[in-house]
Amino acid sequence: MTVTVLSIIIAVFVLASGLFVLRAVPGLRTYFRLRGDRLITCPESHTAEAVQVAAGEAALGTFFNEPTLQLKQCSRWPERENCGQDCLQQIEADSQNCLVWNIVSKWYEGKSCVFCRKSIGTLQQWDHAPALLGPDFKTTEWKEVRPEKLPQIFATHQPVCWNCHVSETFRRLHPELVTDRPSEIAHRV
Ligand SMILES: [Zn+2]
After folding, report:
1. What's the pLDDT tens digit per position in 59-112?
2. Most CB within 10 Å of its CB: which of 13, 65, 102, 155?
3. Domain boundaries of the chain, sorted by first residue
4. How much distance in Å is there from the Cα of 175 to the middle of ligand 1?
């Protein structure tokens, strides 16, 4: 193999790699923008429903310059699996505002734990999830709630930090092992 042929092969390889990266970066950006649970208002039932966009397919669509936006999951499926997916317009209009993580973060923002009064702070992916206190005085991690139920849950529940959720759950499950000090009773709801 002559040096010239080798140079051409290297040049073609470098060019192909460059083109691949140029295509792959927007594709990855599409993937990270569209992944995750989202809350939309179903145009048919006018109820809050949880959906997931097929982010992998959308990323490939961006890579091959053929935009593809479709649902991968919806809380009304499988019954309404053949719907027109008109809710995608809401996601196209503002893909971040309907992201469940952002909706939950916004609800906890500026709120304090109903038990210990500590500020819940900003939600972090790697932190323990905060919880919710229901009218039945049971605490539940927000991640255990079905996303489409969150809007009505937020109207009736109060914020609880993870530490208090753990201690309240223990207290509820093992009341015989818990002794409240008078100062603690004064602070309890
Ligand atoms: Zn607390």
Report:
1. 998 888 888 899 999 999 999 999 999 999 999 999 999 999 999 999 999 999
2. 102
3. 1-98, 100-189
4. 19
